[in-house]
Write a structure and sequence with these properties.
rod-shaped; 107 residues; alpha+beta; two-stranded antiparallel sheet; 1 helix; 4-stranded antiparallel β-sheet
């Protein structure tokens, strides 16, 4: 009976060690929203001035997904997807117009 318990504990310990040495995953969801309020004199219907929100005040708004999967032995699978976003109305451009790729990294 004690031999079975010791054997079971040894198998559990080996399983935990294997699980810890197995690859790890990293998934990042990120985004940059760039919006500005612009006021222009002598513009608009009555030429009084026009104030409105605009997207892309300093840079282009965008969102992305970065995935890194450890395959073991120093190898990794990589996925990067990035897409533009219009901050003023929430619409998106052509899917994954920004840099997007799928790759393998190894020793």
């Amino acid at each position: 009976m004690q031999k079975k318990i010791v054997a079971a504990l040894a198998l559990c310990g080996a399983g935990v060690a294997m699980a810890q040495s197995a690859g790890t995953s990293k998934v990042e969801l990120w985004g940059i929203v760039d919006a500005a309020v612009r006021h222009t004199n002598n513009e608009g219907a009555g030429k009084d001035g026009l104030t409105k929100m605009i997207g892309g005040g300093m840079s282009q708004s965008r969102w992305g997904i970065n995935v890194e999967e450890d395959l073991g032995g120093g190898s990794k699978a990589l996925v990067v997807l990035e897409n533009r976003l219009n901050a003023d109305d929430g619409s998106v451009s052509t899917p994954f117009f920004q840099p997007s790729y799928l790759g393998l990294q190894g020793p």
